[in-house]
Amino acid sequence: MIKQYTSKIIGLGKYVPDNRVTNDDLSEFMDTSHDWIVERTGIEERRFIPKDSPEGTATMGVRASEQAIERAGIHKDDIDLIVFATLSPDYYFPGSGVLVQDLMGIGTCPALDVRNQCSGFIYALSVADQYIRTGMYKNILVIGSEHHSGGLDLSTRGRTVSVIFGDGAGAAVVSRHDNLDEGIQSTHLHSEGKHAKELSLIGPNTKKWVHEVFENYDPDDMDYHPYMNGQLVFKNAVVRFSEVILEALAKNNLEPSDIDMLIPHQANLRIAQFVQKKFGLRDDQVYNNIMRYGNTTAASIPIALCEAWEEGRIKTGDHVMLAAFGSGFTWGSSLIKWV
Ligand code: ACO
């Protein structure tokens, strides 16, 4: 008989840069205000890597991973696979997964990069879960890390996008587990490419390549700045978040009231509050930290999950729901029976 496994998270870690940037700090660069940002997004401050710092997407991922591995009680050489999710890789290529592997001195295990933006951590978790269920790997390091601040347009022109994002990293060690009723019970992934450009950073790309960046770079070419159709993103997010949470509940024969902790991707506090209200969840059933970190995209779920666990808000036996929506558009969820 083929042995069946499930997977469980045995260690969580997070890292955010020390440098706090308040809404008032941003209003020194652009025409915005603390009240506008809080009212529309819930964000009060975010962390930015200082311009002269050597810190980056991979190094933040390393710091979060070291904490996760230590808490997991395993050795870094026990890692069988690294899955790294980001939309802000250190290099065009290679991906940041191999950089983490090198910086941490982790032998020659495979390192896989996932490019699914705000849904990146859930996609990465799903990849890890599948490799563990097949029996191929035992311990997988899943990382979400973003260095947004270096690429944001911090002038008034870019304010709709740039007030939202912040830097940070989160990591989870996902490991083989024998009790099929515990750990990651299901993951659900979706995408809809017709909206690819509605939340995107187009350049540089393979049509606007190195010669253009160096010879013809035009700082007013908006392809080089993140673009977001905010209202379309908002409208799709509230629908897709709800759908994919319902999908995970149905798969596991659960009702919304069975959710002990919902960790939504920290896109915008108003989106999380909409979802909370739709499912009739109390404040203690939803974890939000966007107020302190802004939207850290692929890092937002592992940072929030890590903090919720550190604060004792997730207990053995809890049903933990992760859900995300973002650029692509992509969206996903995962239902975890916490052990
Ligand atoms: N400060 C002050 N004023 C601003 C700012 C700012 N930072 N940004 C835009 N404005 C102005 C606009 O110029 C506009 O002025 P006008 O009426 O004179 O033209 C006015 O505010 C309204 O602009 P809108 O873009 O219509 O603002 P909206 O109410 O849609 O709010 C927001 C923008 C907050 C981005 C909203 O659309 C939203 O939350 N969208 C969801 C997107 C999201 O959450 N993205 C997260 C990243 S994606 C993800 O992770 C899912």
What does this structure look like?
With 339 residues, the protein is α/β, with parallel strands linked by helices. It has eleven helices and 13 strands. It has two domains: 6-177, Peroxisomal Thiolase, Chain A, domain 1, CATH 3.40.47.10; 183-337, 3-Layer(aba) Sandwich (Peroxisomal Thiolase, Chain A, domain 1). It is 32% helix and 22% strand. The strands form four sheets. It has a five-stranded mixed sheet with strand order 1-7-6-4-5, with helices on both faces. It has a four-stranded mixed sheet with strand order 8-13-12-11, with helices on both faces. It has a two-stranded antiparallel ribbon with strand order 2-3. Helix 3 packs across helix 4 (96-104) and helix 8 packs parallel to helix 9 (269-278). Bound molecules: acetyl coenzyme *A. Residues 32, 36-37, 40-41, 118, 159-160, 163-164, 199, 228, 230-231, 233-234, 237, 267-268, 271, 295, 325-326 line the site of acetyl coenzyme *A.
Give a brief rundown of this model.
The chain has 11 helices and 13 strands. It is an alpha/beta fold.
Task: Produce the secondary structure layout.
Layout lengths: L5 E10 L4 E3 H4 L7 H8 L3 E3 L9 H16 L8 E5 L10 H9 L6 E4 L5 H14 L5 E8 L12 H4 L5 E10 L5 E9 L7 E2 L9 H6 L11 E2 L1 H22 L9 E4 L4 H10 L11 H4 L6 H11 L8 E8 L3 E8 L2
Parallel strand pairs: 4-5, 4-6, 11-12
Antiparallel strand pairs: 1-7, 2-3, 6-7, 8-13, 9-10, 12-13
Bound molecules: acetyl coenzyme *A (ACO).
The site of acetyl coenzyme *A (ACO) has 23 residues, from helix 2, helix 6, helix 8 and strand 12.
